[in-house]
Design brief:
Layout lengths: L5 H5 L3 H14 L5 H12 L5 H12 L5 H24 L4 E2 L2 E2 L1 H27 L3 H25 L6 H26 L4 H25 L13 H4 L5 H8 L3 H12 L5 H13 L2 H20 L6 H15 L3
Antiparallel strand pairs: 1-2
Helix pairs in contact: 2-5, 4-5, 4-8, 4-15, 5-6, 5-7, 5-8, 7-8, 8-9, 9-14, 9-15, 11-14, 14-15
């Protein structure tokens, strides 16, 4: 059975998401015209809105969506957007979701300042309303994400990332943000510390499954997901299918494949050679099995909460995350 689309999953909170969009736009207002132009551009480029969905469904599951839940979702979006703006500067990236990045249009200095502005707006929003527990959850996530990025940079230089290190990196880089969405949603609805902890764990497991799914896209049929395969290979990224394949390879195969990856080649034949090696070595199947393991953990944890439309929404988000085609 195909997972529901995000629009279908969103239905129980569609009106809430519309209200949130307006509040999020207002949260970025500034008397400085340049800032207003840039934040308007940011809002126009909004993504799939998965983070607000995790916040609102988690709140609904734990007592109900409050005004505080909107602030939780806004705080996460402000701080996350700030990290993306800074990431584009660090990576010297000219594109984000098919649009020009801020640094491509307004140069690095302005992009860094806009990132700082968004970060401060998120902090002030929480302080003004004394939402200190939300601020603690999200600040911890930003700290952990930064640590994950630095850990990956440190380990990537030598291409010696073990499976244990890989999971530590994605837990920090990707999973910590989704975990904070779920924890903030629960906290904003007045949930007790145990429910907040459980939903934080739920979000972490979903974040890990999400990243493994992303890894797997790199080894699918070229063009099947709307982008070429082998991008991670070109960028010398060590993902789970590759790590597992190399761990079980002969000395000569390992040396040959690592040599290709280190070269950061754009040669399609070389990239296809790595993809074929990972497929034939069982790396794809292993990564899929790991992803399903984390998916099941998330389902088992959700089963501890009473069934309602919000729990169903979270279950459908789990399916979408792990069974999506792009």
């Amino acid at each position: 059975m195909m997972p529901l689309s995000l629009d279908e999953i969103k239905q129980p909170v569609a009106k809430t998401i519309d209200d949130f969009d307006k509040k999020f736009r207002l949260s970025m207002k500034s008397p400085v015209p340049l800032l207003d132009r840039i934040t308007h551009y940011i809002v126009k480029r909004k993504g799939k809105q998965m983070r607000p969905l995790f916040v609102f469904f988690s709140a609904g599951l734990c007592g109900g969506i409050q005004e505080k839940t909107h602030r939780a979702a806004t705080l996460i979006e402000l701080l996350h957007t700030a990290t993306l703006v800074h990431d584009d500067v660090v990576d010297d990236s000219n594109e984000r979701r098919g649009f020009f990045s801020l640094n491509a249009l307004w140069k690095n200095k302005i992009a860094v300042l806009v990132g700082d502005y968004l970060l401060s707006k998120g902090l002030l929003l929480s302080v003004e309303h004394k939402d200190f527990e939300l601020l603690e959850i999200v600040s911890e996530a930003v700290k952990v994400m930064s640590e994950g990025e630095l850990l990956q940079i440190e380990k990537a230089r030598r291409l010696d990332i073990s499976e244990e290190i890989y999971f530590e990196i994605i837990r920090r880089k990707t999973a910590s943000l989704i975990a904070s969405c779920c924890a903030c949603g629960a906290s904003s609805a007045g949930a007790d510390s145990e429910a907040v902890r459980k939903l934080h764990q739920f979000g972490e497991w979903i974040g890990i499954a999400f990243q493994i799914k992303d890894d797997l896209f790199d080894y699918g049929p070229s063009g099947a997901i709307g982008k070429p395969t082998g991008i991670d290979i070109k960028e010398s990224k060590m993902t789970l299918p590759l790590i597992h394949a190399l761990a079980n390879a002969s000395y000569f195969d390992k040396r040959r494949i690592i040599s290709i990856i280190k070269s950061r080649t754009s040669d399609r034949k070389k990239i296809d050679e790595v993809i074929r090696f990972v497929n034939e070595s069982g790396g794809i199947q292993y990564a899929e099995d790991q992803m399903k393991r984390y998916q099941q953990r998330a389902f088992d944890l959700l089963a501890e909460f009473p069934p309602n439309e919000f729990r169903k929404g979270l279950e459908e988000l789990v399916r979408f995350t792990t069974e999506r085609q792009q």
